[in-house]
Amino acid sequence: MAASKKSTRGPKVSSSAPTSKKSGARKNGIAKSSAASGGINRLTSMISSEPSFFRTVERYFDRAATHAQFPSGILNQIRACNSVYMVRFPVRINEDVQVFTGWRVQHSHHRLPTKGGIRFADHVTQDEVMALAAQMTYKCAIVNVPFGGAKGGVQVDAKKYDADVIERITRRYTMELIKRNCIGPGIDVPAPDYGTGPREMAWIADTYQAVTPGQMDALACVTGKPVSQGGIRGRAAATGRGLFFGVREALATEENAKLFGMDPGLEGKRVIVQGLGNVGYWAAKNLQDGGAEIIGIAEYEGGIYDKNGLDVDEVFKHRNESGSILNFKNAKNIKQGNKLLEYECDILVPAALENQITSQNAERIKAKMIAEGANGPVSANAEAILLQRGIHMLPDIYINAGGVTVSYFEWLKNIAHVRFGRMGKRHEEGTNKRIVTMMEQVTGQSLSQIERDVFIHGADEADYVDSGLEETMINAYYEIVEAYRQNRRVKDLRTAAFLVSIEKIGTSYMELGIFP
Asked: Last residue of a domain, which of 332, 367, 402?
């Protein structure tokens, strides 16, 4: 039950990047010539090992910080993890007692509360949690969500235990956070991440409410809860839905699509998705509904490929029934799912875990765009290779920010104690109904009942959430693109995204008056 707290200054690091394209010079200054392959080979030979996840994030920061106009003291403050808490706590399992290790990292307090998910995985480490907390800081700034970044993790393989044990682990971990003042509506607000979901968030909220009786805003101590427990409609689909909005906007115009060497529009674009979990499923489904063709899906048991396209819902149903995506009708089985990353496609969506594209496979990636649904799926060394090949990507700190955006909406809902749309939905529908009736009277033509329902419909919570998410992702995209286009020394969208976040966080510190 030991705990430690320390302020941690982050080390320096390298970056992650895009995938391949046609030959010819690029606008952003990355030349593509016959010398490129030789340069890539030299670069690969110089790479000895991948930096850690946290060091990778630090290198991204350092690369962007060279373009920021702030004193070094402010940059050092933004870069550092403010607080790192490690806890060890016992949990009774049958007749035995097992000790678990967990962390809660608060990367930045320039805005409060801090915000970030809780990851349950046997491979989770302090370095990983620190990296994810740092990314949350930059992610929140990019999408204009007024939180500092945080992250939590517990070393546990949730698949090995039944629900009763997972509940005890979750509640005990929550108690450790409460004892250290690391959770609260205005302090630090967790959310789901890998290995956790609405169930665990409900247990966290219940534990917090039990310890803080009478606190009116107690439900706002955590987001990602079931709707019946103060959650918000649209939260489950938020990360994948946000990815769809970002990809769609990146291909919306000829100028935008030119950056990725593609024609504008999603229609007919070939997509490969790694991971059919919450993020991967909703990303694939929304991209498919938007006109793209999902030609490959990879999971830990393997992958499936069909050049004619896969029906995402049918694949999901098949996996639920058979326990695997393999042997799906008309699809080719890929024994090693990660090999699908190297198949030719227009858009590659790695939506599983970090370090899926490394220096070992970066030269074989054939996608034109990589949309990072997961956190850190492209290693720093891989990014250097991919950028030299002229491949752009939509970076994780932007493209998977839909989750924290809608978590912000849930937090606002819990603070306000009212469902979005409750006050105005019927009034809006009444107004629309009167307009439709007048139109029918003036034109002498009647609408069908389906048409009337479409015109009359008043916005409810899910509509407001989707509208707010779309607005957020579109605005953030153009802030990033503007930073990329206006600074010739910025060669990729990841550096541009980090620069946008650094500018916002640095301005916040300057205006707080912390530094004279």
From this structure: 402
Q: Does 363 fall in a domain?
A: yes
Quote the CA–CA distance of 108 and 501 in Å, as a whole number: 12
pTM, to two decimals: 0.85
CA distance linking residue 509 with residue 507, whole number of Å: 5
In tens digits, what is the pLDDT along the chain, a chain of 516 residues?
Answer: 444 444 443 333 333 333 333 333 333 333 333 344 444 444 444 444 778 899 999 999 999 999 998 999 899 999 999 999 999 999 999 889 999 999 999 999 999 999 999 999 999 999 999 999 999 999 999 999 999 999 999 999 999 999 999 999 999 999 999 999 999 999 999 999 989 999 999 999 999 999 999 999 999 999 999 999 999 999 999 999 999 999 999 999 999 999 999 999 999 999 999 999 899 999 999 999 999 999 999 998 999 999 999 999 999 999 999 999 999 998 999 998 889 999 999 999 999 888 899 888 999 999 999 999 999 999 888 988 898 888 889 999 999 999 999 999 999 999 999 998 888 888 888 898 899 889 888 999 888 989 888 888 888 889 999 999 999 999 999 999 999 998 888 889 999 999 999 999 999 998 887 655
Strand-pair partners of 369? 347, 392
Whether the bond into 226 is cis, omega within 30 of 0: no
Q: Which of 115, 139, 151, 413 is catalytic?
A: 151
Does the active-site annotation cover 335? no
Contact 13, 54 (CB under 8 A): yes
Number of domains in the chain: 3
Q: Are residues 244 and 393 in the same domain?
A: yes
- Whole-number Å distance between alpha carbons of 333 and 330: 10
- Say if residue 191 is in the same domain as residue 336: no
Provide the residue range defining the domain that includes 452. 422-458
